[in-house]
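pinned: reference chain
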Amino acid sequence: MLKTLQGIIRTGNATVKYPFAPIERPKDARGKPEHDLVNCMACGACAVACPPNAIQMVVDPQAQTTSWSINYGRCVYCGRCEEVCPTKALRLSAEFELAVMDKNDLEEICMYTLQPCAECGSPFAPAKEVDYAYRILTQFIDDPDAREAAGLVKVCPRCKQKRDSQRAKQGFGSLGGAS
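pinned: its structure tokens
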């Protein structure tokens, strides 16, 4: 018994006086996801990748907006959102103390405007995402396919489908097929 007491005294205190003393966190500790509103283009990749559906995207065509929201109460801090974000707008911080008095304080919501179609005017995608795609495509100015795609970035899928069907119809007629 004396040896056990000597071992305990030599070891010292094995616990940390948390929350009164700061706790040392590992370098790669995963904490609260931090959302960068400026870099986010509301593409929804994070919402698709989120296993517990903590990140949600809701489109409101009447208001021509899409809302991005994260519920930190649901988040399991897996880091999938950080991995799939093409613009690095989400990153896991070291912050892990998320105690709040009201559960509504665990939710963050951001609104993004939708891009109206250049042909029909109906909203179809987040404007920041359309702008991002346009900037990427215009980097390949020597490629005729990229130039054509850049010209169609601000056109909704329905209008693109109409264009394609008209193009196919014209191509079919020029081949001498029956109409």
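why pinned: The radius of gyration is 26 Å. The first strand starts at residue 33 and ends at 35.
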